Amino acid sequence: MMFSLFFSTVSCSSDVDLGFLELSWLKIVFLGIVQGITELLPISSTAHLRIIPGLLGWQDPGSAFSAAMQLASIAAVISYFWQDLKKLTGATVRAISEQDYSNQYFRLAIGLLIGTIPIAVAGLLLKKSLNACNSPFRALIVVGISSIVMSLLLGVAEKFGKRDRVFNQLSITDGIWVGISQAFALIPGVSRSGSTLTAGLFLGMERETAARFSFLLGLPAVILAGALELHTLFKAGLDFNGWITLIIGLTTASISAFGAIYSLLHYLEKYSTWVFVWYRLAMGIFLVVSVVTGFLSN
Q1: Are 43 and 192 in contact (CB under 8 A)?
Q2: Beta carbons within 8 Å of 17's beta carbon, 6+ residues apart
Q3: Distance CA 109, CA 103 (A)
Q4: Alpha-carbon gap, residue 78 to 156, rounded angstroms
Q5: Angle ∠(51,57,63) on CA atoms, nearest 5
Q6: What count of other Cβ atoms lies within 10 Å of the Cβ of residue 141?
Q7: pTM higher than 0.85, yes or no?
C-alpha cells in the first residue's frame, strides 16, 4: 500500500477554511519555515502565507492554519525570554502576597496582561469572518494596502521616535497602547510584530526594548489565538492526516523561529528598522499593482 503526500479532499466549508489540506506535506514544510521566520519579524507572517501560495499557484492554506501556526513561536519566545518571564512572574507573586502593587515589574506584568484584551476581544468578534472561506480580509489587495500603510507608519516611528526608554521604565500604559495596536494585526498584512514594534517606537522605546516588549506582549495573544484555532479545527472535524499536517508545519516553524528571534534582536541592537520599512513598502506596492493589472488573482 502506497502513501500519497497529497490530500485530495476539498476542504472548504462555510464556517472554516481548511485549504491547507489541499497542500502536500513538502509544501507545508516550506510554509512552516516561512511562518517561523516571518512571525517574529515585522513583515507579517499571515501576509506571507497568503502571498507565497498566490505567487506559486498553491491553495490558500486559510486563516485557521495561519493562526494555529503562530503557536510555533511560543517555544522560541519562552526560551529566549525565560529570565524576563521568571522575573515578571516572581515580581507579580511577591507583589500580590506582600500587597506591594507599586513594584515596577508587577505593573509591567499587569500591563502585558491588559494589553492582551484588545486583540482577544477583536479576535472573538471577527473570528467567523476571518476563518470563512474566501474571507475578504485575506484578499491580496487588503494585504497590499495594509503592508503599505504599516510601512509608512513604521517609517514615521523610526524617524521621529525618541528611542530613550529601556525595558525597566515601561508601564501599564505602555501595555494598553501597544495592546491596542496589536489588535490591528488581525488584518493580514499588518503584522503583530510590526504593529507592536511601531507602537513601541512611537512611545519612545529603544528599538531592542520595543521588540522585546512586543514578543512578551504577544505571548498570551498567540497562546489564546492558537488554542482557539486548534479548538475550531477540532470542531470542524479535522482528521488524522490533517493533524499530522499541522504538526509538521508547527515543527518546521518552531525551528526557524529560533533563528528569527535571535537575528532580529541582535540586528536591532545595531541597526534601524528601515530595511523592514522598504521591504514592506515594496511588497505592498507589488501586490496592489499585481492585483490591479490582473497578474495575481485577488
Answers
A1: no
A2: 60, 62, 63, 64, 131, 132, 133, 134, 135
A3: 10
A4: 31
A5: 45
A6: 16
A7: no
Say how far apart CA 183 and CA 181 lie, in whole Å. Answer: 5
Judged on CB neighbours under 10 Å (0-12, 13-18, 19+), 223 is middle
The predicted pLDDT at position 188 comes to 84
- Taking residue 9's Cβ as centre, other Cβ atoms within 10 Å add up to 10
Reduced to 3 states (helix: H, G, I; strand: E, B; else coil), residue 205 is strand
Q: Could you tell me which residues are beta bridge partners of residue 205?
A: 165
Euclidean distance between CA atoms 246 and 164, whole angstroms: 42
Best CA proximity match to 47, nearest among 58, 33, 60: 60
Q: What are phi and psi of 238, to 5 degrees?
A: -60, 130
Give me the count of residues in the chain.
Answer: 298
| Beta carbons of 35 and 249 less than 8 angstroms apart | yes
What pLDDT band is residue 131 in, cutting at 50, 70 and 90? low
Report the range of poorest mean pLDDT among 98-112, 125-139, 151-165, 192-206: 125-139
Q: For the chain, what is the largest distance between any 2 Cα atoms, rounded to a whole number of angstroms?
A: 66
pLDDT at position 6, please?
32
Angstrom distances, CA of residue 51 to CA of 224, 227, 252: 25, 25, 19
* Residue 120: other Cβ atoms inside 10 A: 17
Closest CA to 197 of 130, 257, 265: 265
Return mean pLDDT, the chain. 85
